[in-house]
Design brief:
With 79 residues, this protein is α+β, with helices and mostly antiparallel strands. It contains two helices and four strands.
Length: 79
């Protein structure tokens, strides 16, 4: 069974978590949360804890190292 996550990035520079370093990465987020965010405009929370409203193409950014590490620990194997 494949994990129900997908990557998404943050466009905001006033992110609520961290020192801005998370803004340079795509993050792992539950797919259902992405859908809800797109429909209702509510923030999502990445595996690493970053909270934001996604609105950029995640394919243009490297994956957050923290999210990648946590994803591998939770779901096993390479992410």
């Amino acid at each position: 069974m494949r994990p129900m996550t997908e990557t998404w990035t943050d466009e905001r520079t006033d992110a609520t978590t961290g020192d801005g370093e998370h803004d340079r990465f795509a993050h792992y987020v539950r797919k259902a949360d992405i859908v809800r965010s797109n429909v209702e405009g509510v923030p999502v929370q990445a595996l690493c804890g970053k909270v934001w409203i996604p609105n950029r193409d995640p394919d243009k950014y490297p994956i957050c190292p923290t999210c990648k590490e946590l994803h591998a620990k939770i779901f096993g194997g390479a992410s």
